[in-house]
Fold these 2 entries.
Entry 1:
Amino acid sequence: MTTEIDAIRSAVLEGAPGEEISSLALPEGVRGALVRADEQEMFAGVASEDKDPRTSIHVEDFPLPELAPDEAVIAVMASSINFNTVWTSIFEPLPTFGFLKRLGRESMWGARHDQPFHVIGSDASGVVVRVGSAVRNWKAGDNITVHCNYLDDQDPSAHDDSMLATNQRIWGFETNYGGLADLAIVKANQIMPKPAHLTWEEAAVNALCNSTSYRMIVSPNGSQMTQGQTVLVWGASGGIGAYACQYVLNGGGTPVGVVSSPQRAALLNELGVEAVIDRKAEGYRFWSDEHTQDPAEWLRLGKKIREVSGADPDIVFEHPGRSTMGASVFVAKRGGMIITCAATSGFNIEYDNRHLWMKLKTIKGCHFANYREAWEANRAICEGRVHPTLSKVYALPDVGEAAYQVHKNLVEGKVGVLCLAPEEGLGVTDGETRERLLPQITLFRRHAG
Ligand code: NAP
């Protein structure tokens, strides 16, 4: 028997016209990766590193909600794992059900999100299946990717830089019905064109990390790097780091990439990053015990940066947080900027403030990207100026394992997840550009073996 979802998948794979796709029936229940409210205490007393996404993420059917006028239903061909997938699945720093409850109190449409399940995922590539009555720029049949800035466009605070909006949220993390599912619900102002030269899985992994790095490195809302600047990039072969390195190189800067293995150092060299520091080989111990940092180790890092790049960093691309922030503030150049979007190793940060004020440095917070920034970052991918960093692909039923790999720092770049796409390699409509850029597009995949 052909189910509604099979019919949608077949129509997309055959490149059916929009009218045909929009006339297909939507299923009542949709397969997706979710966590359950009644399990949010399951890891009580367990250390963060031992909390296992494979036990908390379930792949099962959930009821598809009614579509709001400013929304679209997307047939998700592929999605990706982000670190927020890990945070949701280990219920840290907070279970995400509180976010859904708050959204639920805001409006009738918001109430749909407050469920005893949370369908996760903040990236997607796919095809528009339905649009609400207020959607103007997109129609059924469009090949698209999705960025995760979810905002209330009737809120005045959303109309300068929308990341400053009071009710700004991350789709699939602070909202329900995210991308790790066969169908997803998105606002029309989250949609962007799919890069024609990429497969579904290559197109799915970029938006969240690529847009974040664009804002942090390129945008005036971030550090707005200029030509010739030196940028220290922590986790330089990771999700956001590998896009940051590409923006630094594109903008005529010198990235100094920090990684934790010779394989990752080699990968960065091939990406074009010449100055690389293997933090494991160097054996940095910025914290001599739980409460004490060692400035001699900061100094040792600073010397190494000068040795490999000839300069102190104008910008430090910071996200590990507690383990590195003291060092980051110390090594930044006089007048330099530490731009931070995360604190993976701990959010209670300590640094020596004398190094900040006496050397006139700035710490700047940064978070995802507004629609314009996400659009520009997507344009860089569409034009082949920035490349996906896809290293591994899982099928949706294995999403727990995929999240586990990211949680344990076992993968480089990005991990893709096939949703409706039955296999890898589909979705390319510009074979000529793909052929030309193939070595760059597949770099991370080749290194992963
Ligand atoms: P990822 O793919 O896991 O990469 C992070 C990299 O950081 C790792 O590859 C690792 O590289 C390095 N790292 C991990 N722990 C470290 C430590 N203690 N000291 C030094 N380096 C360490 O994750 P991601 O996608 O890049 O995300 C990184 C963080 O940014 C996460 O916390 C995520 O939630 C956050 N984030 C925030 C936003 C936002 O909008 N605010 C957007 C995207 C991501 P090596 O081991 O090779 O050094």
Entry 2:
Amino acid sequence: MLKVEHIGIAVKGFATAIPLYEKLLNTTCYKTETVDSEKVNTAFFRQGDTKIELLESTDPEGVIARFIEKKGEGIHHIAFEVTDILAEMARLQAEGFTLLNEIPKKGADNKLVCFLHPKGTNGVLVELCQEIG
Ligand code: ZN
């Protein structure tokens, strides 16, 4: 894995969270994007060599809405950049990790993504992401 590509943070609403993170990070949100398959809106901030991704549910039954219901707002996942997502998925599966999706999915920010089950990673939802060429 190359580096922490971004940290995903679940928030209740962009209306207050985006201005707050703009103040916190002293930078402007450079992109918002809806990922329909995940029922989320995403908002991105560059911070040095990595990014912060805010996640807002578009559906009360969506994964982010359910996460906030259970755990409250906060860190949702850590995303690692990889150069060959299929090879990394195969390696991790062989090491005994559980993949939440067997086939990479199209995520936000022009990425192919795969998530690892947090039960196998000490409670941390891990995302692998590869830039789409
Ligand atoms: Zn992410």
